[in-house]
Fold each of these.
Amino acid sequence: MIPRKRLFELLSDYVAERISLPDLDILIAYLKQAESNHDLYLVIDEIWKGLETDKPLLISSGHLYDSILNDPRIKKTTDDDRLTTNMKRKNTRLWWYKSMAASLFIGIALYLLFLPVGHKPESHTEQLVRIMPGGKKATLTLANGQTIDLTGASAGQIAEESGVAIRKTKNGQLIYWEDAAPTNQGDKIGINKIVTPKGGEYQIVLPDGTKVWLNAASALSYPSRFSGDTREVNLQGEAYFEVTKGKPFIVVADHQRIDVLGTKFNVSAYQDDKQRITSLLEGAVRVTNAANRSMLLKPGEQAAVVPDKTQIDLTTFSPEEVLGWKNGYFTFNNTPIKSVMKIIARWYDIDIFYEGDAINKVNFGGTISRFDRLEKLLNTISLTGSVKFRVEGRRVVVMI
């Protein structure tokens, strides 16, 4: 009988693809001889409780056996090869993940291993290249037309408009700071615009203190100083808002308007998506579509606007799934693979193509770090056995 702590180590090393062949032999021998799976369930539950997610883990011991007992490293490796391979691994083995990233990888890998038996992990990505994840990249356009590359700009004050200092912090935030009244009261308050490319994200603190997290391939337009009776911004793409209390705050997005009074919410309004979705975490917002239909949201509710429809659909949502991008994760819950790959494409700045008529029937669920190389992310998804990938430069082909 293997102590539970040792079993935890073996399973963790196995799903993280760092297990040595002698340890794999030990794990297989244990599974073949075990009369009860009680310890196995406890270990898996222990790993899962360490994750910051509420996704269910559907466990079947038979599926675990199928994954480990049929491991090709055992089937295809001779005793002599095992010794040589193990010596190489001892010299070259790397720890891929640290702290929470390690727990998240183990959790998603376990989640994927326990899919129905018909889904056998057989393929990793082919022709892999090192495509790195996105990061803090954005371009700021001032009211006078001047363009500033925020990615390369040094920390400190980068511009000033109408008595408002525009600063970039050391950790890559853009902050508007009202130092004084406008130097010329006759000057019109100009509109600034921040744009993130594919593979970029940025955080902005607006002149009123409102915090905005801008996702990849998105744009936010706003005045350098809020005046008048309302505070209005224009959004393309996706952003999460933490709005300070004060005058009514309005977000104008594609085919919708969102009226806010001090709240936290997420807006996804990409033009290539079928729906424009507003998800409310705190406070209250009113969503109005192009047909002038409106709906007042309560915390935990989500409004979906479809450009060609007059109605607004109301549902509840999972904060972990909606805000995963802001917190550094991709979180999916039985999401169609095409929707999954569209989100991934925006972050890694890649083009996606599909092969296979059954691709529309494939769904995916799990939580993965947004800061892994593309190779690792695709390998994790391919563990389902439902899809495999071929990478050609920045072109990724998804195959059944």
Amino acid sequence: MYKKNPFYRHQYKILLSRLKEKRQFIQVLTGPRQSGKTTIAQQVLGKLNYGVVSLSLRWVPIW
């Protein structure tokens, strides 16, 4: 059976190394729609076997 090789963006290595540091800070992924933010988060957290809190922030007008 064919094994699919995942594509890792440059930010994958950065986020992975930051989450492996002794001092762990909150990491925020921002960017335009469909730029791969969720994919990178899932790949890194899958590698580290961490729990995750996922937030979706939308602009909501306050009238």
Amino acid sequence: MSEKTLPVPSTEASLATVSGLLGWIPTWIVGRRHYDAVPPAGVTLVCERQPDNPSDTEAIAVYAPGGGQTGHLPRCDAAYLAPLLDRGVVRLETRLSGPDDPDNRTPIRLEVWPAEQAADLAGRHADTAEAVWHHQLLGLWQNRARYAHTALDAFRSEVRAHFHAGGLWPETQLLYRLLKGTVADGAAAAEQVRLEQMRREAEAAERSRAAQLAECRAAIACEACGPLLPFGHLSVLPLRAVRPAAARPIASAVRQGTAAISCATESDDLCKLRVKVERGQCVFAVKGEELDTTLGRVRVLHDSVFAPGLVPDQLFYVVKANGESPNRRKPVFMADAVMPEPALPALPGEATGFAVFRGAECLEIALFTQPGSAAAALPLLRARTWHLKPASPAPSAAEAFASVRPLFTDAALKPAPPYIDFSDCPGLSGEAFILGGSLVYLRVKVKEQACGHSSLFGLGLSGKLDLLEGAGEDQTLFVEAGAVEGERPVPDIAYAGEVGRPEQRS
């Protein structure tokens, strides 16, 4: 087709007055291994034509500021830039944009500036496909700010094969390549926005976590409310919850009709009970609490909270309390040195919990919303080794409370409303339950440190003793019972941890 003037808007005037940066192209310095000069970072490098280069007459060399050549621009870029440099349409500046890639190419930011003949970028008015492509690219380049970088990148992907095939004007190729820099700028800006959004979200999450943690610490706060009370060789420090929730003990709630219990399943020992509570009420059952019911006397197996709309589980388990608990850690003494079991300590009327100490070492903290719940939890003291004399003397009440205070103020709590988990705290285990920023219950055990001595309790049996070395509460003692002469030998019995059903040893 022959070239002729077409009725298209003129862009020469607008392009002739362009004085700022046209754009930039992400590319590389190649051939570094052939040259000694090293391109310095943070400075502008010089790009010059090398028309006499025997390998490529369109070569564009890259020089360091001191004059030493560092390499060339890639052939694919030199092919369209060389004609524009020769005609004085553009000039080039470049600087490093990163470390060398695995192909020994040095990434650069190649900046394209208008020169004296910048108006030539408008292209020729011709009735050809090349002219159509050029004016399409020119219009897109002039209006690139209207489009998201993702849309421009998608467009470049669609037409990439056509542009790489060649045959288009150098001005057109330049505009296509400049779009790559525009896409990179857009992607960098979007990434910056994303990172800033992530930073703000992280800060908001941290503020929310800190506020939640502060609320949890305030909810579980307590204070000492009496002197240390003895229980055998253990000591009990009465505590009072600062922010108790309005939770009713299950026994009084059932008596007053604000809660109703029905039996879901029943066996000889275990019963599963279903609790129905009116909305807006909160009812609490204490682990170890004994209830005198029409099923008989039963003992609660776990701390259980019932609050419609907040706690989905409305079931709890009890065992029939016919005599002593079979899992009770029953002390065994030498026959001539029996210690009578002490009476449970009488907590002050305002106490809603307690901390258990052996000497200066805290073993457990239990804190509730009602004084009655604290009293109901006290019988579990009998499961402790109350007859083991501590290595250190008992502290004063003030010293005892000072030793447990960090648990409430500094421990690494893990809020999971309405629960607070203490499993992430080194040396601690347990949980708390908060409702409306107030405490329903807290029960935390402190893992005992290895004490270096063995808890030996004579069993009143003759024969050999095999001790499995360990520390703390859960050491295991094996005994081989001696047989009375003339009687059949008694089989070996193993008692492991809490004394329960004896197991036959092989």
Amino acid sequence: MNAGLFALNVFQGGPLWSFWPMAGWGIGLAAHGLATWFSLNGDGLRDRMLKQEIDRLSGGR
């Protein structure tokens, strides 16, 4: 998406406006990542999810 906006901006000419959507996208992505990271640290959820994944990959043994 961002590459398309940048290409459109370059082919269209004029001032570099494609930076602003990319900056907004990056801020949103960082906020979502932090929210996900901090929500997994509560009440042992991360450990439970990790154990479930290990059990699933080992065939339930």
